[in-house]
Amino acid sequence: MSAPLTFTGKVVVVTGAGGGLGREYALAFGERGASVVVNDLGGDIKGGGKSSAAADKVVEEIKSKGGKAVANYDSVEDGEKVIQTALDAFGRIVLVSFISDLIHRVHLRGSFMVTRAAWNHMKNQKFGRIIMTSSAAGIYGNFGQANYSAAKLGLVGLANTLAIEGQKNNIHCNTIAPMAGSRLTQTVMPQDLSESLKAEYVAPLVLWLSHDQCQENGGLFEVGAGWIGKLRWERSQGCIVRQKNQAMSPEAVRDQWDHICDFTNATKPSTINGSLATLVEVLSRVETEEGVAPNPARGAAGAPAAPSPDPVSAAYSHMQCILYALGVGMSTRENDHLKFLYEGHEDFCVLPTFGVIPSLGSLMDGGLGSLPGLNIDFTRLLHGEQYLEVFKPLPTSGKCATIADVLDKGSGAVILLDVHTYSGKELLCYNQFSLFIVGAGGFGGRRTSDKAVVTGSLLTTPTNSRSFRNSTTTLHGAALYRLSGDWNPLHIDPNIFSLSGFKAPILHGLCSFGFAARHVLKQYADNDVSRFKSIKVRFVKPVLPGQSLQTEMWKEGNRVHIECKVKETGAVVLSGAYVDLHATTGDAPHGLPELVFAEIGRRIKDLGAEMVKKVNAVFGWEITKGGNTVAQWTIDLKTGNGALHQGPYSGKPDVTFTVSDEDFMAVAQGQLNPQKVGYGFIVGTFR
Predict the structure, then answer these.
(1) Fewer Cβ close by (within 10 Å): the C or N end of the chain?
(2) pLDDT tens-digit map of 566-589
């Protein structure tokens, strides 16, 4: 057994020790034999006032346990008085950091004051670039420069926060740590080196970071002698050094020190959220005993399935179906939207993605929330992924029951919830929710499932083959969408969304999900709900009501790959997503026309630049069957190196060809002269 760590004979000064972290530090040192100076001004949270009560109380706590302590009530700005208290009480000198008011006023406060004066002007003009000048002494430290180093690293923290706060107003803030000869460097480096490190080797970086084309924000760069390098933080994988319901000890820290400091497979956090996410995962792992001493039986092969919630009954009317359609952007301005919005329409029907709404009862009280052994705080729930499969067009009203199956992923970070929705004995649809719920795991359910639906990928999708559709959400979009039955208060209650770190309500992830599915249904199925089979998405980032959603789509067989972005920022909100459609015998793209256009696409890839120079036009193709358009293609020989994509052109084509499926196949097979039906030019172009 290793000997415990003690501080007998040591003198420790703890500032701000009247409460919070400082108090904990003071008590811990006192318990292990240190003589403690408990410093606390006793002011309020705004820095005003003064009281001895807080420090006195901590001193008495230490003494009551047999420790040694004295109180000090001075401001840390009066550092000499704080240290003198230690000398008078315990006769020893305590090493502390020195702060120079002059250095801070020149380097840190001066930068702050100038930035503050310019900030509102930059906000009003929606543009600004701020370059902070730090130094290697601030980043790495340097002997004899404690005051200077503190001020210079303070500038990095100031710049990082300004970068975050200014982003929405196109204000970017970056920091440079230049090495250039100056009066300040004459005393710390040889004269010839100082003269060689010219300021002109730094200025080009400053100019670039100041230019409106430069989108760098929150960066830290070392620069000098014609060399520039970017710095970033690196963090080891670390090690959990405590167990559930047991105290954490310094001995455990000591024993795991090599693991704590091992940078193998190190991470590179870049935001405070990245830092916090690790701690959230740690809390879950400790709670489920996956830290220092994991439970080998939990989640092992053959583990029993978790108990399932009781079936949840639900009923809905045409009103909820209409509210849902409005919530995902349907509008009476579009004639083909009316069948989703008017119960008197001869083709009145329900959007397929409404299938997620009845299943939500399995997430709330009486469903997942009532499952024994599963402790859920719904304010800590994040929606990771969603899969929906519809087995028949949903009725416009009715009663249904949802039956859920919970799959335990052990860490408490991810729970898969399978929900089957029935009308009587008829299965209407199947949902799989992938949920992130901190601390909810560890209830003994299966750790894996062959039913876990995987996401797709757009990585191999030709960019020039994608179709685009845009919709603008409304400022009251979240409030409207919830009326269809998605009642999560995160999307409307200021007390809830502020706790989650948002300044305003965010749009439901399933609302963005509905927008994207609606775009696909229009683009590739002409709003025919019977064509819709299933959809799978991964939720990436939130959408603010009022932002515009752009869905990029590419069809491969019966699968439409999709990626949804916020048009104003380019941020991806749905990724790894796809919609599967049912094939129909009337679908021209599944026959010869698709092969013909695939060949055209290959020729554009090989000879596109030459064709663009020769033709300089955009051709739209509409293939019909029985008088209805069943496929559309666009051949763009006007921009770039040419492109082909399935779907209509985003603008107005120079020429549009409308041809029946029968004529198209006859031309392609050489059974009909293209000149006789007016398509000779385009056929000749690709022959």
Answers:
(1) N
(2) 999 999 999 989 999 987 654 444
Q: How far apart are CA 606 and CA 541, in angstroms?
A: 38
Beta bridge partners of 659: 623
pLDDT at residue 682 greater than cutoff 70:
no
pLDDT category at 183 given cuts 50, 70, 90 is very low
**Which residues make Cβ contacts (< 8 Å) with residue 389, sequence separation at least 6?**
429, 430, 533, 534
Sheet with 227-231: strands ordered across:
128-133, 171-178, 220-224, 227-231
pLDDT of residue 355 exceeding 80, the answer is: yes
- Give me 358's structure tokens: 């009845």
Complete DSSP assignment for 74-113:
--TT-HHHHHHHHHHHHS---------HHHIIIIIIHHHH
Q: Can you list the alpha helix ranges (DSSP code H) found in 344-474? A: 356-359
Q: Where are the alpha helices (DSSP H) in 482-615?
A: 494-499, 509-525, 592-615
* Bridge partners for 554 per DSSP: 561
- Closest to 674 in 3D by CA, of 591, 589, 596: 596
Distance separating alpha carbons of residues 53 and 73, to the nearest angstrom: 10
Catalytic hit among 73, 140, 148, 324: 148
Q: In whole angstroms, give the CA distance from residue 603 to residue 644.
A: 10
Residues 6+ apart with CB under 8 A from 203: none
Position with higher pLDDT, 229 vs 41: 229
Q: Cα dihedral angle (33, 34, 35, 37), rounded to 10 degrees? A: -140
Residue ranges with strand state E in 225-328: 227-231, 312-316
Query: Token pair for residue 275?
Result: 């830092």
Q: What are the tokens at 668?
A: 């392609």
Arithmetic mean of pLDDT, 261-276? 76
Cα dihedral sign for 73, 77, 82, 84?
A: negative
Q: Give the separation between CA 577 and CA 454, rounded to whole angstroms.
A: 10
Structure tokens at 350: 């329900």
Can 679 be counted among the known catalytic residues?
Answer: no
- Rounded Cα distance between 236 and 254, Å, is 16
pLDDT in tens, 73-131: 987 667 778 778 888 998 865 444 332 333 444 457 767 777 787 788 778 878 888 88
Residues near 447 by beta carbon (within 8 Å), at least 6 away in sequence: 299, 303, 407, 408, 409, 410
Per-residue pLDDT tens digits for 650-673: 667 888 888 887 777 777 666 666
Work out the angle at residue 455's Cα, subtended by the Cα atoms of residues 451 and 460, and round it to the nearest 5 degrees: 140
Please tell me which residue, 48 or 320, carries the higher pLDDT value.
Answer: 320
